[in-house]
Specification:
The protein is mainly beta. It is about 15% helix and about 35% strand. The radius of gyration is 24 Å and the shape is globular.
């Protein structure tokens, strides 16, 4: 009898745990302009669940973000903030068309451009983007945007960005290509059908070509006359949903051209991160032995983690503690925006005593290190953001606008 009771109790606990993790997704329907969050006491069993609310120091569950697409209008790359004009869709009234969404990147949020990781400053204004967003912090009192009649997009509350990517990256990630059905250079129209894993998906769309549209073929530019029926391509767009599917700004006509632009962006990203450090947060601290465990974010090229254990043969041995054979790196305190204070003077060094793989969650790289620090800083606390410089990475002073030192 006791066994049956314990079994029932376990089943009830499991069911309650599942209910606790239930959240609304895009499959439950679009966000409406007049939606209001209900008091839990007024909720009915058939009401939609609430959107997932982020928890500090935790990665979000899979599938819990809200998808929003639109055109990049404004960028503050230092604070990793941006503004995008939300695409029109059938769920919107005309009164809320073309309104901006002002958002900031989460510290573990990813930016992709040309099929590779990127920084906000890599993406030109006017680029059409696809994004995944979470609700703003409940304490966020951001006022409505300064738009006509002080109107705001139905997506206004989704101000924390987990991912943004251009059309090139969005389609490439899903193994999609556009296939040209016809080209008319008199009317500057290109008709194409999306191919999903080499199979047609959806109806043909008619895109606008511009006299400035750049066509890449092989390792060089090509003329618009190179566009022919039957070819497949990836492209980037602007003015999407304003006057149809959009205007093509750049078009990559073959695999060598696509591979080349991705490789170039990947190297740009690697150089950017090597100068600013690998981002992550502190997972655990042991004060007395001066041990700090760091979990790295998944918004960087995974190949960079291979450089964690490379030993710098020119590095001087530490004075305290006694020298060891452990590779040594620098740990700098960072802000939620990933901006650091003064990497040359503020980072402290430590020996890497362990590098291990952990379970991969959305936003996490699945890579964790344990450091034996020479000196502990106040910023080395659980859930705090850091940047880590592996042993062979040279640490230079960044441009002053990229350092937070002196702004406190």
């Amino acid at each position: 009898m006791r066994f049956v009771f314990l079994l029932c109790l376990s089943l009830i606990t499991i069911l309650h745990a599942e209910d606790a993790h239930k959240f609304r997704t895009d499959a439950d329907g679009p966000v409406k302009a007049d939606e209001k969050k209900k008091n839990p006491k007024d909720k009915k069993p058939d009401d939609k669940p609430d959107w997932y609310q982020l928890v500090g120091g935790q990665f979000p569950p899979e599938g819990s973000a809200h998808a929003v697409s639109g055109e990049l209008m404004k960028v503050d790359h230092l604070e990793r903030r941006f503004q995008m004009r939300v695409d029109r869709n059938d769920s919107q009234d005309r009164g809320v068309w073309d309104l901006p969404l002002d958002a900031g990147m989460l510290p573990y949020g990813s930016i992709w451009y040309h099929g590779a990781p990127a920084a906000l400053q890599d993406i030109p204004l006017g680029t059409h983007l696809h994004g995944l967003f979470y609700l703003a912090d409940p304490d966020d009192k951001t006022p409505p945007p300064d738009t006509w009649y002080r109107r705001k997009t139905p997506e206004f509350d989704f101000r924390r960005c987990f991912l943004i990517e251009d059309d090139f990256s969005f389609n490439a990630r899903q193994k999609q290509l556009w296939k040209i059905e016809s080209v008319d250079l008199t009317t500057m129209k290109l008709t194409a059908t999306l191919q999903d894993n080499a199979k047609p998906s959806g109806q043909p769309k008619i895109f606008d070509l511009l006299t400035s549209t750049r066509v890449f073929q092989g390792n060089s530019f090509a003329d618009l006359k190179a566009l022919q029926a039957g070819q497949t391509f990836l492209c980037n767009l602007t003015w999407v949903t304003l006057y149809g599917p959009g205007r093509i700004t750049d078009l990559w006509l073959d695999e060598p051209a696509r591979a080349l632009v991705t490789a170039q962006q990947l190297e740009r990203h690697r150089n950017y991160i090597r100068e600013r450090g690998l981002p992550g947060w502190v997972a655990a601290v042991e004060d007395e032995p001066q041990l700090v465990t760091v979990t790295f974010f998944g918004n960087v090229d995974p190949k960079l983690f291979d450089e964690l254990t490379r030993v710098d043969p020119n590095a001087p041995p530490p004075k305290e503690p006694p020298p060891t054979n452990d590779p040594r790196g620098g740990l700098a305190v960072a802000r939620e925006t990933l901006m650091i204070y003064d990497p040359v003077n503020d980072r402290k060094t430590g020996g890497i005593i362990e590098v291990k793989k952990i379970s991969i969650e959305p936003g996490s790289s699945g890579v964790q290190i344990k450091l034996k620090m020479d000196m502990m800083l106040e910023g080395y606390r659980p859930k705090r953001i850091i940047r880590f410089y592996p042993p062979t990475w040279k640490v230079n002073a960044l441009p002053k606008e990229e350092e937070f030192f002196g702004r406190e």
